[in-house]
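Predict structure. Chain length: 340.
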Amino acid sequence: MTRRPRTRGVTIEDVARAAGVSRQTISNALNAPYRLKAETLERVSAVIEELGYRPDQSARSLKSGTRRIIGYPTPVDDPANPNPLMGGFLEAVVAASGEVGYRILLVRPQPGQSQEQALDELIAARTVDGFLLSDILRDDPRVAHLTGAGFPFAAFGRTAPEQPQSWVDVDSVQAVIELVGMVVARGHRRVAFLASSSGQPWMDDRRDGFLAGVRRHGLAGQVYSPGDDPDEIVAATRELLAGRNRPTAIVAGGDWLALGLYTAARAEGLEIGKDLAVAAFDDLPITGFLQPALTTVRLPLRRIAEALISRLLQIIEDGVTPQAGLLLPGELVIRPSLGP
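Prediction complete.
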């Protein structure tokens, strides 16, 4: 029997030689891309793809002492009515972690188990290198628990000043200030904000942006919190629109609130984009199909995910916790609901 010669795989040295950089630069591109200039990372990544280089994950894990796994406690959702926004966020997180050689492990407490106990179980078993948290609430117990344990985490949402500042968030305040400026530029003087009554931090930020926006333009904007039930939203908004001094422009704190607003406007015989300017926040997939299509603020999910993974790896691999959180701008999506 004739033995075939063994084919040598592409090595990291081959990639470094082809890219004209050091072996360490290739390692940084794979493990800590935030250390490289954008143009260097782009050039090295192109060579890695061209040569088909794939690092030995088991060897990397043994050398670094990491599992190369990030735990993500998933928000509770209704399978019959899933949150498309968080589905998009998960997709972005999986893509961003995969690009640097990490995998995402979805975490959900077992029956009778608290979220903190579920996290402790993974920490004790050395299953994950760190956690990625989302839907951060005030006094979030997960943040407090991981801070006390000294275990690496990054958060989509702001943590308290005395806690690690490895968070990334959207600058909701500035985004809504800009929305208010747009409706004022179209001649509207009676403006209102439609808020959820849930008390979520991001909803409060959007309300604060509205109040800052109307103050900037010398207006007395009104804030309404009709509740979160769809029927309540429609009924309360109809009452608002039937008033003698009804607003001619409304900013909703979320696209789902705007859906009730569309229903209420139709019931009151008002044409959105003509009789009433409407804007909202989140850019859910349905917003582009409404009649008229809804002006809204899109969350830059890919940029958020990449920043979160980068910050978490600084802690895991370099032992460096960011000293300040990162605010990213929302992306304004202008559609006909604002009017001409």
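Summary: The mean pLDDT is 90.
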